[in-house]
Amino acid sequence: MPPEVVLADNDTSLRSRLRDMLIAAGHNVECLSDDNEIISRLRTKRPHLLIVDKDLAPAGGIQVARKARELDRDLKIALLTKENLGAEDKSKTLTLNVRGIKKDLDSHFTLKTLLEIRIEFNDKVEENRHFHLGKVLLVDDTAEIRTPLKIFLNMRGLDVSEAGDGRQALSRVYAERPRLAVIDERMPGMNGTELLKNIKEFDSSIQVILISGAYDPDNSQKAEELGACDYLIKPFSLQYLEALVLSVLIVSRKARDGKTDIACGQ
């Protein structure tokens, strides 16, 4: 079976951390160290995703991406960068259909983007595949929204419970101690921001994602100040939701195992 993901980065420490995170998300990963190895591998095996460091020796990641694109027009390619891409490099990546991603393994944003690129819904997910990452609590006062999301995430191998309001959610938090709560901002009684505050006062290690129907910079800033690790705007794709939930669970678990705090915000 060919590797699902080929990962090439000269930084062995970062490469190892990212490999472990991708494996935790259920992917088969092969690590390579230079451009010649990558092109040789792509000639014999076709991965689903190539992740290459922009500064990969000796030719650089963009040149590798150009050669890879010549071999496979449909290959998904991500370019890891230390800094934001300049105008010239942005133009090159757009031409090559390459996604530029800033390296930041201390938060969940890099992994989230990679998983969003990689996840395909026709991939069969074994039951309970991601239960070891911890429980997810979905909180929304509208059952027509909440229940389908729970069913979807359950089908993608995650351990999910649900609550229809803030008080019920807090009871779930006290009893189940979920690793992640995904909370709708607008709910009668206790709204999402108030619930976030109560959860963090009870256990600051519980990760929280707030969902809003529209972007409000004041609410977004307040959520970040209260400890939310992401602020999700409707509408969103199920693919994006899965990538976001998995990335938060995996990175927070790595941070917890290493006895460091997950970095929230970009």
The Rg value, from CA coordinates, equals 19 Å
Q: Could you estimate the helical fraction of the residues in percent?
A: 40-55%
SSE run: EHEHEHEHEHEHEHEHEHEH
DSSP strand content = 15-25%
Beta-strand segment tally: 10
What is the CA–CA distance across the termini? 36 Å
Widest sheet: strand ordering: 2-1-3-4-5
The structure class reads alpha/beta
- The number of helical segments is 10
Main sheet makeup? 5 strands, parallel
Based on Cα principal axes, name the global outline. elongated
- Point out poorly predicted stretches: 259-266
Your description of this structure?
The chain is an alpha/beta fold and 266 residues long. 45% of the residues lie in helices and 18% in strands. The protein has 10 helices and 10 strands. The strands form 2 sheets. Strands 2-1-3-4-5 form a 5-stranded parallel β-sheet, sandwiched between helices. The protein has a 5-stranded parallel β-sheet with strand order 7-6-8-9-10, sandwiched between helices. Helix 1 links the parallel strand 1 (5-8) and strand 2. Helix 2 (35-44) packs parallel to helix 3, helix 3 (61-71) packs parallel to helix 4 (87-96) and helix 8 (192-202) packs parallel to helix 9. It is elongated, with a radius of gyration of 19 Å. The two termini are 36 Å apart. Residues 259-266 have low confidence and may be disordered.
